[in-house]
């Protein structure tokens, strides 16, 4: 381990220099650098329909750039010349609850420009080392230190420009960035493989059981084929929350990972609450019916569930079949007759939903095929979690010089 020097920054290797943002960047800019609020309002109109350029926002990053973009026309794009994006720039949200969120501008292969409430920059020596440094505990700590305000947290460009940054030799910057980006590239590849595999399974389901359903198959309500049960909670729940005991499944556990599976549940309730709740074994399929309703997940750990979840103790179908069925019919289940969307999934509607019933041979053949796909998704997701944990362990060690690269 190399010697370290104490600076206002933190402990860093003695041969690393300390500088500040303004000295190490080619530029730091944002949306409002293009003109006054009046001129921005006059020259820029947001559009929901596709147009010349995409306005890149934190929302788009959180959605993995899958759509529902905001667009601007050619005139607005030209007016916003100080915040045009080529792809690969570092972007940091600087206003709101998620101030300090760091991400890279995507490469969407069409004109892009930066939206409000974020700043963008390019570093002289390249962005990748500093992208990871800003996401490291050290970088997050310094970003948090310049965020002020409680109702509307924010930091401004002037404060940010003076924020200290480490400056390792260029060769070390490249080596550190290469190690971390290779892990991220592998993680991204596995995520894309999983997305393709899940689409494949959804296509098979749609073709076999909807588009090519046999005329002699019976059509029955789902409630006659599966038992639908709602979870339950000990009351008041605040008296039963604990740091240990029985895992307590929250709706947020279903939305934090884009996977059919739930690997990890962080909250617990006391064992005393067992007879007042619903305890499920690993391998059980659950369906959210509140907050973000209609999301199916397969538990990989034992857990208790509250009344925001449904489970299916008796079923004519496999977990994989039900998972794909619920994904397919979710939009219909969430729609009322008048076209508005339910915030809770109505179990009566679920039970009454009519589906064609495949013969046993078709079901068995499908299950054998689709289980192989789900096993591959599970293996990939396990690798993703392992690689993510490795990256998260290496990140602070590389940024502090605790782990050296040559």
What does it look like?
The chain is α+β, with helices and mostly antiparallel strands. The protein has 3 domains: 4-166, DNA methylase specificity domains (Adenine-n6-DNA-methyltransferase TaqI, Chain A, domain 2, Alpha-Beta Complex); 169-212 and 360-406, Orthogonal Bundle (Helix Hairpins); 230-346, Alpha-Beta Complex (Adenine-n6-DNA-methyltransferase TaqI, Chain A, domain 2). Helix content is 37%, strand content 20%. The protein contains 12 helices and 24 strands. The protein has helices spanning 21-24, 37-43, 58-62, 74-79, 128-135, 137-145, 157-161, 170-211, 252-255, 319-333, 347-352, 360-400, and strands at 4-6, 11-13, 17-20, 25-30, 53-56, 70-72, 84-85, 90-93, 102-104, 112-114, 118-123, 164-167, 218-221, 229-230, 241-242, 246-249, 261-262, 268-269, 278-280, 285-288, 296-299, 303-305, 309-311, 354-357. The strands form 7 sheets. Strands 14-23-20-21-17 form a 5-stranded mixed sheet, covered by helices on one side. It has a 5-stranded mixed sheet with strand order 15-18-16-22-19, with no helix packed on it. A hairpin with a 7-residue loop joins strand 20 (285-288) and strand 21. The longest helix is centred in the middle third of the chain and has 42 residues, at 170-211. The radius of gyration is 25 Å and the shape is globular. The model is unreliable at 1-6 (pLDDT under 50).
């Amino acid at each position: 381990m190399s010697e370290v020097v104490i600076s206002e920054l933190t402990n860093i290797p003695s041969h690393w220099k300390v500088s500040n943002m303004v000295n190490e960047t080619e530029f730091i800019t944002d949306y409002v650098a293009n003109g006054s609020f009046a001129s921005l309002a006059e020259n820029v109109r947001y559009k929901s329909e596709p147009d010349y350029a995409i306005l890149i926002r934190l929302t788009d990053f959180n959605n993995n750039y899958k759509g529902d973009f905001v667009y601007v026309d050619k005139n607005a794009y030209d007016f916003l010349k100080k915040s045009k994006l080529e792809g690969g720039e570092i972007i940091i949200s600087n206003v709101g609850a998620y101030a300090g969120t760091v991400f890279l501008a995507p490469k969407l292969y069409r004109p892009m420009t930066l939206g409000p409430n974020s700043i963008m920059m390019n570093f002289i020596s390249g962005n990748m080392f500093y992208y990871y440094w800003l996401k490291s505990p050290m970088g997050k700590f310094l970003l948090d230190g310049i965020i002020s305000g409680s109702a509307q947290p924010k930091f401004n460009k002037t404060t940010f420009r003076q924020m200290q940054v480490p400056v390792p030799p260029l060769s070390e910057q490249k080596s550190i960035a290469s190690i971390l980006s290779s892990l991220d590239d592998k993680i991204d590849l596995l995520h894309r493989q999983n997305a393709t595999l899940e689409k494949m399974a959804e296509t098979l389901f749609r073709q076999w059981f909807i588009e090519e359903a046999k005329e002699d198959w019976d059509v029955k309500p789902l409630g006659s084929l599966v038992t639908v049960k709602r979870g339950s909670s000990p009351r008041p729940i605040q008296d039963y929350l604990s740091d240990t005991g029985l895992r307590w499944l929250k709706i947020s556990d279903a939305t934090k990972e884009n996977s059919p599976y739930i690997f990890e549940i962080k909250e617990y309730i006391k064992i005393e609450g067992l007879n007042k709740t619903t305890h499920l074994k690993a391998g059980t399929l659950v369906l959210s019916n509140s907050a973000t309703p209609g999301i199916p997940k397969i538990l990989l750990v034992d857990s208790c569930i509250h009344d925001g979840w449904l489970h299916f103790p008796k079923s004519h179908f496999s977990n994989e079949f039900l998972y794909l069925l619920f994904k397919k019919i979710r939009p219909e289940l969430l729609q009322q007759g008048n076209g508005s969307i339910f915030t809770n999934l109505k179990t009566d509607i679920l039970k009454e939903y009519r589906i064609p019933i495949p013969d046993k041979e078709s079901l068995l053949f499908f299950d054998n095929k689709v289980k192989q796909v789900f096993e591959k998704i599970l293996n990939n997701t396990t690798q993703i979690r392992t690689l993510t944990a490795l990256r998260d362990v290496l990140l602070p060690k590389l940024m502090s010089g605790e782990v050296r690269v040559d």
